[in-house]
Design a protein that fits this description.
Layout: E1 4-5, E2 10-11, E3 17-18, E4 23-24, H1 29-32, H2 35-38, H3 75-94, E5 95-99, E6 108-110, E7 114-116, E8 122-126
């Protein structure tokens, strides 16, 4: 997070006011443990990956706060995306993929991205060197 220099006395809590000239460094911990944003599926502190497949990620603006925004966004976001792309490249370069088409393959649901209703039934077989 980006530190801020207080321009005038700034109340942090009812009991504490940061004096003018002090440095405030925001913490993401409270935001990332906010039960309003992450309270479904047992609360913010529970490991519950299924909370992301309920289809309302776009409605939860706080979900992506961990990466920050603007010129001070988290470099880890780019690193994570690049690593996912690398894994997809390695998978596609070394394996043949077969999609089992079902009656629901062309229907879509939306949860952070478009996804087929049949859960995209894929099977993989290792490619044989030519």
């Amino acid at each position: 997070m980006v530190p801020y220099k207080v321009k005038k006395p700034f109340p942090i809590t009812p009991e504490y006011t940061a004096p003018k000239g002090s440095m405030i460094i925001p913490s993401l911990w409270r935001s990332l443990h906010d039960n309003e944003a992450y309270g479904s599926h047992g609360g913010a502190d529970e490991w519950a990956p299924e909370r992301w497949i309920d289809g309302d990620a776009e409605e939860q603006g706080k979900n992506w706060l961990v990466f920050g925004t603007g010129p001070h966004y988290c470099l880890g976001q780019t690193y994570a995306v690049m690593n996912l792309m690398l894994m997809i490249h390695l998978l596609s370069a070394n394996f043949n993929m077969h999609h089992t088409v079902t009656d629901r393959s062309e229907e879509i649901r939306v949860f952070a991205t478009l996804f087929p209703m049949d859960d995209l039934l894929l099977s993989f077989t290792r490619r044989v060197a030519a």
